[in-house]
């Protein structure tokens, strides 16, 4: 950094010199100094996409989202295939809930860098939020091939497969996620749902209980567990699970329905089940 600074002050005042100094300052944790150098590079060469990209990165570090947006747009005008610029553009659109715009940029970045599992995963997740599950699965399988031990990627593959009604294949993905991250709540919960749908009730109960241990304040596995125990005739276990559910659930309508079920169970009358929720 010092050598570059001296070179600039003593005549080597090219855009590339300022860019190198800016990069060094940014990596050293000096975003404001870096921003000044990026601006110097841009003044000397307005068509330097790397300088616009660097200025956008420093703007994000300093909290200036408007500057980041404008500089990322400039970088992409100059270099439409720059993957890092597309990724940042996707992140910015995600922050402002523009999921379609985010997907467009993540997909563009992943096409340019097909060996980057993080970009494929981001494209898959945004496709999922758009309801484009087949496309999501394609991207997520690409990410899985590149990062087979990434628990979140394996979970997201399972979720896409489960949504597309490939429960057996989804179960294998959830199992792979849990092999890497045994306390992955959503994988445990969705495994329980699959086992429940397959009438493997003992296994479903086991996975629901594990999910409750991992995230005791989430009411979803509790209501499933309570209904399962009720169906199996385990009245005391069902009552306990319903009571725990009431301590977590905020929806007044659901709470009232569960209170009625508890009254029936405690009074020995015929049991009813609340409506099931989707995973």
Biggest pleated sheet? none
Radius of gyration: 26 Å
Note the run of SSEs as H and E.
HHHHHHHHHHHHHHHH
State the assembly state of the protein chains: single chain
Low-confidence parts: 269-279
Strand content: under 5%
Task: Give a concise summary.
The protein has helices spanning 2-9, 15-27, 31-44, 49-62, 65-78, 83-95, 99-112, 117-129, 133-146, 151-163, 167-180, 185-197, 201-214, 219-231, 235-248, 252-267. The termini are far apart. Residues 269-279 have low confidence and may be disordered.
Could you explain the architecture of this structure?
With 279 residues, this protein is mainly α. It has 16 helices and no strands. It has helices at residues 2-9, 15-27, 31-44, 49-62, 65-78, 83-95, 99-112, 117-129, 133-146, 151-163, 167-180, 185-197, 201-214, 219-231, 235-248, 252-267. The chain is elongated, with a radius of gyration of 26 Å. The relative contact order is 0.05. The model is unreliable at 269-279 (pLDDT under 50).
Set down the secondary structure blueprint.
Elements: H1 2-9, H2 15-27, H3 31-44, H4 49-62, H5 65-78, H6 83-95, H7 99-112, H8 117-129, H9 133-146, H10 151-163, H11 167-180, H12 185-197, H13 201-214, H14 219-231, H15 235-248, H16 252-267
Helix pairs in contact: 1-2, 2-3, 2-4, 3-4, 4-5, 5-6, 6-7, 7-8, 8-9, 9-10, 10-11, 10-12, 11-12, 12-13, 12-14, 13-14, 14-15, 15-16
């Amino acid at each position: 950094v010092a050598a570059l600074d001296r070179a600039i002050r003593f005549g080597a005042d090219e855009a590339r010199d300022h860019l190198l100094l800016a990069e060094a300052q940014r990596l050293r944790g000096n975003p404001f100094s870096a921003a000044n150098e990026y601006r110097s590079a841009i003044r000397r060469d307005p068509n330097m996409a790397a300088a616009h990209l660097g200025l956008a990165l420093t703007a994000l570090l300093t909290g200036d989202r408007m500057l980041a947006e404008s500089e990322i747009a400039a970088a992409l005008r100059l270099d439409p295939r720059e993957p890092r610029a597309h990724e940042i553009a996707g992140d910015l659109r995600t922050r402002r809930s523009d999921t379609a715009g985010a997907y467009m940029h993540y997909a563009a970045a992943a096409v340019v860098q097909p060996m980057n599992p993080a970009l494929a995963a981001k494209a898959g997740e945004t496709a999922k939020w758009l309801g484009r599950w087949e496309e999501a699965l394609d991207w997520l399988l690409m990410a899985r091939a590149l990062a087979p031990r990434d628990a979140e990627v394996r979970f997201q593959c399972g979720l896409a497969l489960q949504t597309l009604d490939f429960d057996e294949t989804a179960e294998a993905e959830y199992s792979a996620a849990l092999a890497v991250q045994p306390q992955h709540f959503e994988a445990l919960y969705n495994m329980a749902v699959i086992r429940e749908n397959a009438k493997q009730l003992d296994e479903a109960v086991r996975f629901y209980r594990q999910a409750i241990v991992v995230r005791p304040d989430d009411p979803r596995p509790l209501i499933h567990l309570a209904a399962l125990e009720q169906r199996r005739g385990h009245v005391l276990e069902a009552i306990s699970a319903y009571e725990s559910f009431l301590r977590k659930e905020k929806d007044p309508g659901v709470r009232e329905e569960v209170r009625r079920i508890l009254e029936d169970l405690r009074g020995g009358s015929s049991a009813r089940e609340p409506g099931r929720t989707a995973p």
